[in-house]
Design brief:
Blueprint lengths: L11 H10 L3 H8 L7 H13 L3 H26 L2 H13 L1 H5 L7 H20 L4 H16 L5 H17 L3 H17 L4 H12 L9 H14 L7 E2 L4 E2 H14 L7 H24 L13 H9 L7 H20 L6 H11 L5 E5 L6 H6 L6 E2 L20 E2 L8 E6 L11 E9 L2 E8 L4
Parallel strand pairs: 3-4, 3-6, 4-5
Antiparallel strand pairs: 1-2, 6-8, 7-8
Helix pairs in contact: 1-3, 4-5, 4-7, 5-15, 7-8, 7-9, 8-10, 9-10, 9-14, 12-13, 13-16, 14-15
Membrane topology: Multi-pass membrane protein
Subcellular location: Cell membrane
Main location: membrane
Length: 456
């Protein structure tokens, strides 16, 4: 089978999630309560492993499933407010949006988050549009809002936008509906109580020092550009006449499409989607200026469907031209991304290690710019992280799941041969009393066998 991003080797974060999801559900909840996210994704991945087995296909297939469900609600939202044709265009633009496309094949909680938020927004909009039976709308809203916040903490920023809109609708005369929506949010809060203590611990842990730097205005611009078409920067094809790479052109095609829209046709509706798109982004950027930085692109990708809905709605007669070119550009970028996997080839490396390893050999992860504990565990070549001296690893690398034996400070006595995994340079690997005897390089992934030096 040809390797694509769907079946290529997993990387560290995916490995962490997969190793965690192999545990029982009570263990998953216990471990992840000391990490930085809620448990829903790992519980569903656990169930997927039970029914479909543990593999790259299962891991990516689960994310793709949630991605497709998100697209379904993009269609339902857009067709409900505008038309079925516009709904299909919104699905196409969202599905092919390069940054969003990445996480259709990422074994983490981002597509389940996008699905939860989009479904919550659908039922929220049905409530205030008086579509169908209100009791069904409130039940759907409560269920999917819970789904979203049990998927990722950043869903709360989407709820903040909803709360702002409830206030607007209250003063617009829909007081009863606004009141019932507030009651629904209160019920959501009650049903979230079981996670309040872990949430407090997780927030406190992040406040103690997170790995993200304080974002500036350029970071804000980069994120918005990424969300509007520049999210995949692999294809280096230069577009004729403009002397720009194709991914650099993509957001400008989006801007051109937006300039040709008939914005005045549905101002109030567009304002809601602008709030959905820009609100969480600006809130997290502002929080990151004064408090611990939490501004990170993948945490906010659930805002992309709103941007793509804005892109395809209220079209003028000439809007179709830049819109069609933008979507075609997205497709070209995505196809290249899908067919040219770039993650470190741990599956192939593990095969090499298993073929050359003797029973007495000892494996280590050399902690260069990053360790690969979870990849090596997932592929059956467990190798503890070797740290010389008294340094400690920060929590963000998955210490919640680590065992005491996952970090070592010296090679076991009388070990004749040590195998070292690294994505840095093998020259960095310094093991006193050992010298490099054999190496294997697969792109940026390296493995070295080191034999003990016998002194006379």
């Amino acid at each position: 089978m040809k390797e694509t991003v769907f079946n290529e080797s997993i990387w560290g974060d995916e490995g962490f999630s997969a190793i965690l999801s192999m545990k029982s559900i009570p263990e998953i909840i216990k471990v992840i309560s000391t990490d930085t996210s809620p448990p829903l994704y790992n519980i569903t991945e656990h169930l997927a492993f039970q029914y479909f087995g543990v593999s790259e296909i299962t891991i990516r297939g689960l994310s793709l499933f949630y991605f497709l469900l998100c697209l379904l609600f993009v269609y339902l939202i857009t067709s409900m407010i505008w038309s079925k044709k516009t709904g299909l265009l919104a699905v196409l633009a969202t599905a092919l949006n390069p940054f969003f496309f990445i996480y259709a094949f990422e074994g983490r909680m981002y597509s389940i988050l996008a699905f939860g938020v989009t479904a919550s927004m659908y039922f929220f909009l049905r409530i205030f549009s008086f579509k169908g039976k209100q009791i069904i709308n409130y039940i759907g809203y409560i269920l999917f809002t819970l789904w979203a916040i049990y998927s990722h903490h950043f869903a709360f920023f989407a709820i903040a936008i909803q709360a702002l809109w409830v206030i607007k609708e209250f003063f617009s005369g829909k007081r009863r509906t606004a009141g019932n929506t507030v009651k629904s949010l209160v019920l959501v809060g009650i049903l979230y109580i079981p996670w309040l203590v872990p949430l407090y611990k997780q927030v406190t842990m992040v406040k103690g020092g997170f790995w993200l730097g304080t974002p500036d205005l350029n970071d804000l611009k980069v994120l918005i550009y990424d969300y509007l078409g520049q999210g995949i920067k692999r294809l280096g094809f230069n577009v004729p006449f403009v002397n720009m790479k194709i991914y650099e052109v993509a957001p400008y095609l989006v801007f051109l499409t937006l300039l040709t829209k008939r914005w005045w046709k549905s101002v109030e509706k567009t304002i809601f989607f602008l709030l959905w798109f820009l609100g969480p982004i600006l809130i997290t950027w502002i929080i990151s200026q004064k408090f611990t930085s939490i501004f990170f692109n993948r945490y906010l990708l659930y805002t992309i469907p709103a941007a793509m809905i804005i892109l395809v709605t209220s079209r003028s007669k000439i809007t179709f031209i830049p819109l069609a070119v933008a979507i075609l550009t997205f497709a070209i970028i995505d196809i290249h991304y899908f067919l040219t996997p770039a993650k470190l080839p741990f599956r192939q490396m593990s095969n090499y290690v298993k073929e050359t390893k003797n029973e007495s050999d000892f494996l280590i992860n050399w902690n260069s710019s990053a360790h690969h504990l979870w990849e090596t565990k997932f592929y059956g070549i467990p190798a503890p992280i070797y740290i010389s001296g008294s340094g400690e690893l920060p929590y963000y690398v998955g210490t919640a799941l680590m065992e005491e034996t996952d970090i070592i400070r010296e090679v076991p006595v009388n070990t004749e041969r040590v195998g070292a995994v690294t994505s840095g340079s093998l020259d960095e690997v310094q093991l006193e009393g050992y010298s490099l005897s054999e190496k294997k390089e697969m792109g940026n992934l390296k493995f070295g066998w080191y034999v003990r030096t016998i002194e006379d």
